[in-house]
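so the lab meeting is tmrw and i was supposed to have these ready like two days ago... anyway. pasting both below. for each one the top line is the aa sequence and the line under it is the structure tokens. i havent really looked at them closely yet so no promises
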Amino acid sequence: MIHGPTSAIAHAMAMSQQTTRRPRSEKKPIPDEQKDDKYYDRRKRNNNAAKKSRDSRKAREDEIAIRASFLEKENAILRAQVATLREEANSLRQLLLQKRSQV
């Protein structure tokens, strides 16, 4: 299970997908005597389409996870830079105040 900001992204994606789906119709088993070549061809095409859809969704989710990881690392670097710059600004302020008080 993913924790942190990436889990929030995954949860938001899951929720948005759930709201756009239409309800499934009730499954009815097809009698063997109605299963002809057309039926098996349609099943094969459907199975291939379902697999393609699952694979593309997994690829999208993997891409999003990689992007989120990259952004989290970049964010950590930027936060460290901000902290360093704030410390430098405070040091410079102190130096300026010292110079002013000496004059």
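ok protien two:
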Amino acid sequence: MKLRTYLVEDNATIRENLIGTLEELASVESVGMAETEDEGKAWLTGYPGHWDLAIVDLFLRQGSGLGVLAACRERQAHQKIVVLSNYATPDVRMRCAQLGVDAVFDKSNEIDALVDYCIQHSSGGASVSQ
């Protein structure tokens, strides 16, 4: 089963490359995307049954990925949220953990780890709807 994935990322090139890579390598189905905090929060909280994984950048055109993360704290048990950022410092990782994030990946050198994470969760039954 494909992992229904929603991407919050304001860089169009990164967005397109990431979606293409994940759809090709990790059995991911893109269900939508947002460029701003408000768009991301509205969709992820407004369509709770429509996604299995949210990939969130922290620095957005409007607002912050941290606001998106905070809005999704009450998500369903099978839903995963990961951060993909150029600023995956220890402090940022700790703040993300406090907000209930499942994983943090650095854009510059952890894309393979993100792909592996998606493969693990798409084959591990994480996307089975109740």
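from a quick look at the 2nd one: Helices lie at 12-25, 37-46, 65-71, 90-98, 111-123. The chain is about 40% helix and 20% strand. will dig more after coffe
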